[in-house]
Amino acid sequence: MSDLFTQAVFIAMVASGVRLAVPLLIASLGEMFGQRSGVLNLGVDGIMLLGAFSGYYAVLRSGSVWYGLAFGTIIGLLLGIVSAVIAVTLKAEQGISGIGVYLFGLGMSDLLFQKLVGTPVPISSFPKVQLPLLSEIPLLGGMLFRHSLVVYLAFVAVPVSMWVLNRTTFGLNIRAVGQNPESADSLGVSVARVRYATVIIGGTLAGTAGAALAIDLGIFQQNLTNAAGFIAIALVYFGAWRPLGVMAGALLYGLVNAVVLQMKTLGIIPLAWSDIAAMVPAIITILALVVVAQRFRPPAALTTPFSRGT
Amino acid sequence: MRKPRFAWLAMLAALALVAAACGDDDGGGDGTNGDDPFRIAIVAPSASNDLAFSQSIVDAVNLIAQERGNVTVQVTDGMFVVEDAAAAIRGYAEDGVDLVLAHGSQYGGSLQEIAPDFPDTAFAWGTAADTFDLPNVFSYEAASDEGGYVMGVMAAALSESGIIGVVGPIEVGDAKLYVDGFGVGVLAEDPGATVNINYIGSFSDVALASEAAQSHLAAGADILTGTAQMVVGAIGVASQNGLPWFGTQANQTSLAPDIVVASQVYHWEVVLREIIANIEGGTVGGEIYEINLANGGLVIEFNDGFDLSDDVRAKADAAIDGIKSGSISTGQ
Prior knowledge:
The complex is a heterodimer. Chain A is mainly α. Chain A has one domain (2-295): ABC transporter involved in vitamin B12 uptake, BtuC (Orthogonal Bundle), CATH 1.10.3470. Helices cover 71% and strands 2% of the residues of chain A. Chain A has a two-stranded antiparallel sheet. Chain B has ten helices and 13 strands. Chain B has helices at 7-20, 53-68, 82-94, 108-114, 144-158, 173-189, 206-218, 232-241, 269-280, 310-325, and strands spanning 25-26, 38-43, 71-76, 99-103, 122-126, 137-142, 163-168, 194-199, 223-226, 245-249, 260-266, 288-291, 298-302. The interface between A and B is large, with 63 and 63 residues.
């Protein structure tokens, strides 16, 4: 057990948790905007997968990780528009339509990969950026400030999201539309426009998250996200629809995974317990969800389509 | 309230189904001899070009198709959901395929239910050594501990820190055999070495495999290996850090030409030839097959791009010869 707390291992373990948290954090923040306005998008994982393939393929063709990230983000934006049309304009049942988007992303990303690439080909990853001064702080520097730019941007997105939600008219409209769309509508707020905007933000960030994952790993494979999009949705509930809560959930999930991995590597968790230990992050998240669910309530209009005059 | 309109949703769902169900259908046969083609179908858990488990069977069947001619090959890959795989297996049987390959030990339960409904269809599944006493089920397995042992000997000889990291999926099947054999090989070469084994609990989580490799680095490992399709993530970490990597199931050199030392490659065609001969002779199941170093079903393919010393290469060759002759035990 003492091996776990050597400086090198401890730093690497926390850094690993942060890396694991980042795609979840980005996707969860996007999904949070949608849910705060009353739209549940279960298609996050499918959008992440298409963002992942698009980002990977763009890097493969261009050699630029930033083109890749941008391309994955744009694909996410387009799928966000599609999701918004389905959920807001067509008023489809949100759970079912989200599963449709997920299946589309799962199948299409694999189909495109098979037809355009075939056998996995490695691509370059994001370069590491050591933040001046901060990266030199003992312990913390290695854990938090020697990551790629995407990691820093993901965490910067948390206060930005808080500001948008709590300090802007747009944020006020999002909360109003998610809580009581009829009242918001009576005050002149366009429920459809707000929901379009939030679902598109969610799709865009899901695409970014997928592309960030693929480029960070330097590879694409069928079902690369391994259901990370669904975990991201769960983290929105875990985080009680608040950016800080979402960040806490993503970090908890990533860190528990990292600790379990390191304990298995060092033999602290015996091989016979490996499979059970692999479930620990999910179990902890579910337990935390249960606790959160008793204290917080989701937006009142979540999953409810809006039609004026009904 | 207006009723939701589902036209767009229906279109999207239809498109999704088309995309999700889009499996390869390779006409492997030339159909020139006028006979009905021999039809082989593969149901595999991951992509057919995963450079690992699924690719090994697809490559083997395509080779058989090339050798024989007049063979039709159908592949349904990406069947990581067992229920989907069961539907595909049943579909191929209903379609009159001559040999249905259920390539995944997780498909055994489904096969046990499906095979009795199609007594004239031959099924084969692996990696496993159990036909469920059904007359139309073959099983096949890989003695991957043998190649694992050889890789372990080389890894111990190359390691300077004496710490070697292994990334595994779930402790079952040929993955467990490989990892166990690898550990025995390492300790046979260097009894003082440490083999850190991390079963991540998933065959498909590339990100977790990547972080497992990072955890090995933190623990001081200077050599890495792993098995199953998710190891592409771990190979990336090895490549970024310049650490030698030992592959298995398929030749993984193309993923990291500078650091892959060698790969244990599965040649399932060795057992497929016997299975097909049995089917053509009227026996549609009941046999258990194994690929190993001695029968040529397992081959250690060295990467010419890796500067492996003659000394280490000689140790590997000696281990291969010893396993083939039976003078070396892998502990299984």
